[in-house]
């Protein structure tokens, strides 16, 4: 309501300078131009707001350099970098744009220049013109209202994201109820040589989850799954997963859901929160009767006459709040590339029983996929597990790329661009496929989808323009 | 357009005056609305609490006994007379203390057991009893080759009451005698106990135990009954599986109270393998004729006979 009187003021400005909603800050010549364009906004330094950036367009190379140095400094200390409140907020304050832009631009050194070369046709010239416009406004009595408006807009642009993230992280927002456990440093490069591509996959994947966790206020635990000696016995290898989940549960005593994510994954729709996407409607989207999709042909429900009603029911007790583990099935059975576990007595017991020497001694030749096969076995044979496991259709949490489970095109399994798939799991990409190029492709799709609305409008306008007047190849550079 | 209006201050003054007058008039109304709102919230809260508690804990139907005695009988191989003695012994005890008996037939579980030894029948039998008596709290499994010799002792006062259990629980002792490196938890509280076992001279004893109904029981029994344990050829079948589970899985061990053998599991003098002070003495709750069915030189019916007579004489005297 308060803003209503201001609208005439605002509506006057566009003919003067820009089609966007710029704010003619008196001293902000440098700020008003690159600060609002998409490319530099993500990495505009804090000082860019206070003093005009004399470099103008050459600030781009500075941004790229900073992004690069961020990686270098950022990688080894990823778990501790968000510690201080100030360092955290400083980063947020400096980020005018939604956070996914950061992930889409900076994490990779290969393309920064190419990306900027893509060229948004805005120059810094408009900023100076709007400055003159501001000087004329100074003489009028509406100045106060204008400043209020500017403050609101600036506050919105600069602080809203950080405010939102802080809220989500707080106990009201509920973000701290979720912990993402991301596997990294698989086998520590012991078994295979770790080349540039492996490092790039790792860096990008971690960055992707960091951005997601920060945006929604979740905790991210990047775990080091290097081949420890204690797991190198043939019966114990890859049981690290179980131990890690247990350790993480101990580390975050107030979190409720723990989301295990493999390294070769990419969150495409970072605009989905786990609450909205899954847990607020778990009862509607999950199925507990495995007959809905049963690639392993597990006979369900258990039929033993000595079992109680809940154990013999195909859907357990039917109450979504009793689901303690959420996972998906691919074409060959359970998929543990992305699954959720709730902290509970039940999950403690499952994590305890998951590895048993007597069972593993008899089956270690058969259980090629180790803990995955073991879980399938336990699910099949121990009714207490069944009544607390919920399955999600695969594409809710675990879409596959073509090459995993067939060559693509299966609507139950494979990623479809533009259909709102949450996350893609490049399952098996290290066996004869190219993890890095696949990850790169999904990164591109994410960038495409998460363009800010300004770019979308622009692209649409360009599209329309090209449709009517033919394609123009020489896009203005500055 | 709005900027053409007169300066704000002139507008504000009358506004303030009017609002204060209004609040004076409305104070009573507002108070009433506030009280009404508060009352509604309070009523809603109370009602929701009421309904929550009524749906949250299912109430047991009248006449449900708190304890069920589980016995597995082999009607195909044992004489009717022997079975009749076993059931009579347990029924008298149940009558005296208001317990319920659950007599399971081993033949019911034979298809499930497949080639595993029949002694595994204990596990589905207890699960079966729990399914049949969903509101009973405790389940006392007692091997068929055993008699309850001191029916005047109720299981509550003898074992299950918190203070009693606290004094009976063996803390920080090897789970499997004589020297397992895994020991029972030293900080265990009686309210955390879901499973009460005893050991004989060689291992944990699966012939006499008490288990509490609930999620733990399902978990524990399902794990115990896992096909891979049944097919593993443990020398002592389900007994060794029990040893294995409790030594390898701390979440199960955390719910176990170990008690001395004679509390629920005294062996007759003919039985081998009793632990230290594990042989039956007069006044003990139960006597087990451990191994009488597997040892070809022994005969369960004959061994039980003198004790059965002693028990029925006492029953008449009471």
TrEMBL record, chain A:
Biased composition (Low complexity): 11-22, 33-48
Taxonomy, superkingdom: Eukaryota
Gene Ontology terms: biological process: protein N-linked glycosylation
Gene3D superfamilies: Spore Coat Polysaccharide Biosynthesis Protein SpsA, Chain A (3.90.550.10)
Alphabetized GO MF terms: glycosyltransferase activity
Positions of transmembrane segments: 143-161
Annotated InterPro entries: Glyco_trans_34, Nucleotide-diphossugar_trans
Region (Disordered) location: 1-51
Cellular component aspect of the GO annotation: Golgi membrane
Keywords: Glycosyltransferase, Membrane, Transferase, Transmembrane, Transmembrane helix
Record-stated family: Belongs to the glycosyltransferase 34 family.
PANTHER family per UniProt: ALPHA-1,6-MANNOSYLTRANSFERASE MNN10-RELATED (PTHR31306:SF5), ALPHA-1,6-MANNOSYLTRANSFERASE MNN11-RELATED (PTHR31306)
Entry protein name: Alpha-1,6-mannosyltransferase subunit
Lineage: Eukaryota, Fungi, Dikarya, Ascomycota, Pezizomycotina
UniProtKB/TrEMBL annotation, chain B:
One of the record's GO molecular function terms: alpha-1,6-mannosyltransferase activity
Entry's transmembrane regions: 30-52
InterPro entries to which the protein is assigned, alphabetical: Glyco_trans_34 (IPR008630), Nucleotide-diphossugar_trans (IPR029044)
Keywords from the named record: Glycosyltransferase, Membrane, Transferase, Transmembrane, Transmembrane helix
One record GO biological process: protein N-linked glycosylation
Keyword Membrane attached: yes
GO cellular component, one term: mannan polymerase complex
Family: Belongs to the glycosyltransferase 34 family.
Protein name: Galactosyl transferase GMA12/MNN10 family-domain-containing protein
Organism, as annotated: Aspergillus caelatus
């Amino acid at each position: 309501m308060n803003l209503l009187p201001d609208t005439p003021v605002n509506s006057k400005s566009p003919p003067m300078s820009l089609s966007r909603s710029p704010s003619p800050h008196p001293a902000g010549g440098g700020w008003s131009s690159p600060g609002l364009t998409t490319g530099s906004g993500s990495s505009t330094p804090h000082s860019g707001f206070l003093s005009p950036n004399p470099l103008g367009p050459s600030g781009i190379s500075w941004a790229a350099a900073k992004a690069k140095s961020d990686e270098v400094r950022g990688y080894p200390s990823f778990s501790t970098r968000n510690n201080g409140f100030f360092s955290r907020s400083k980063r947020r304050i400096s980020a005018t744009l939604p956070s996914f832009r950061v992930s889409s631009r900076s994490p990779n050194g290969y393309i920064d220049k190419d990306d900027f070369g893509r060229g948004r046709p805005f120059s810094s010239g408009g900023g100076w013109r709007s400055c003159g416009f501001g000087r004329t406004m100074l003489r009028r009595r509406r100045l106060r209202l204008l400043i209020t408006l500017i403050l609101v807009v600036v506050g919105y642009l600069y602080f809203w994201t950080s405010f939102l993230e802080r809220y989500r992280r707080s106990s009201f927002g509920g973000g701290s109820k979720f912990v993402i456990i991301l596997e990294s440093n698989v086998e520590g490069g012991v078994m295979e040589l770790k080349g540039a591509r492996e490092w790039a996959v790792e860096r990008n994947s971690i960055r992707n989850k960091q951005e997601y966790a920060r945006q929604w206020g979740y905790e991210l635990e990047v775990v080091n799954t290097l081949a420890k000696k204690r797991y190198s016995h043939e019966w114990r290898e890859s049981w690290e997963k179980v131990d890690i989940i247990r350790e993480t549960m101990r580390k975050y005593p107030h979190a409720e859901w723990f989301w295990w994510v493999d390294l070769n994954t990419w969150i495409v729709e970072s605009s989905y929160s786990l609450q909205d996407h899954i847990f607020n409607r778990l009862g509607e989207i999950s199925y507990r009767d495995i007959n809905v999709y049963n690639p392993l042909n597990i006979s369900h429900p258990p039929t033993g006459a000595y079992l109680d009603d809940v154990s013999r029911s195909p859907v357990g007790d039917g109450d979504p709040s009793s689901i303690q583990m959420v996972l998906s099935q691919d074409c060959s059975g359970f998929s543990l590339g992305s699954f959720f576990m709730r902290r509970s007595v039940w999950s403690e017991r499952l994590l305890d029983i998951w590895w048993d020497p007597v069972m593993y001694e008899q089956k270690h030749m058969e259980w090629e996929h180790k803990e995955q096969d073991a879980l399938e076995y336990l699910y099949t044979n121990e009714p207490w597990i069944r009544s607390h496991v919920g399955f999600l259709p695969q594409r809710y949490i675990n879409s596959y790329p073509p090459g995993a489970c067939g060559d693509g095109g299966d609507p139950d399994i494979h990623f479809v661009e533009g259909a709102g798939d949450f996350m893609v799991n490049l399952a098996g990409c290290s066996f004869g496929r190219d993890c890095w190029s696949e990850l790169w492709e999904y990164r591109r799709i994410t960038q495409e989808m998460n363009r800010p609305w300004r770019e979308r409008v622009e692209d649409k306008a360009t599209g329309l323009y090209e449709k009517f007047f033919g394609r123009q190849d020489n896009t203005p550079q500055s | 357009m709005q900027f053409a209006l007169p300066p704000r201050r002139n507008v504000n003054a009358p506004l303030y005056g009017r609002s204060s007058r209004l609040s004076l008039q409305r104070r009573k109304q507002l108070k009433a609305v506030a009280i009404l709102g508060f009352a509604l919230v309070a009523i809603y809260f109370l009602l929701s609490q009421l309904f929550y508690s009524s749906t949250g804990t299912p109430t047991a139907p009248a006449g449900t006994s708190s304890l069920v005695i589980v016995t597995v009988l082999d009607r195909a191989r044992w004489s009717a007379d022997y079975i009749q003695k076993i059931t009579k012994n347990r029924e008298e005890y149940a009558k005296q203390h208001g317990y319920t008996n659950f007599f399971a037939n081993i033949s019911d579980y034979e298809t499930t057991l497949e080639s595993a030894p029949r002694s595994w029948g204990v596990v589905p039998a207890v699960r079966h009893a729990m399914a049949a008596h969903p509101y009973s709290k405790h389940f006392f499994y007692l091997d068929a080759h055993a008699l309850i010799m001191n029916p005047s002792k109720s299981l509550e006062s003898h074992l299950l009451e918190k203070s009693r259990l606290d004094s009976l629980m063996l803390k920080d002792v090897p789970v499997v005698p004589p020297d397992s490196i895994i020991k029972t938890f030293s900080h265990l509280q009686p309210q955390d106990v879901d499973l009460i076992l005893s050991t004989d001279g060689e291992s944990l004893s699966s012939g006499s135990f008490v288990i509490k109904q609930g999620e733990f029981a399902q978990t524990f029994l399902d794990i115990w009954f896992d096909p891979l344990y049944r097919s593993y050829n443990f020398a002592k079948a389900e007994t060794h599986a029990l040893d294995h589970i409790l030594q390898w899985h701390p979440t199960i061990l955390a719910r176990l109270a170990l008690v001395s053998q004679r509390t629920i599991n005294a062996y007759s003098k003919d039985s081998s393998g009793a632990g230290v002070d594990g042989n039956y003495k007069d006044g003990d709750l139960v006597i087990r004729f451990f191994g009488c069915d597997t040892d070809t030189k022994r005969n369960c019916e004959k061994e039980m006979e003198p004790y059965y007579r002693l028990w029925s004489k006492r029953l008449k005297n009471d």
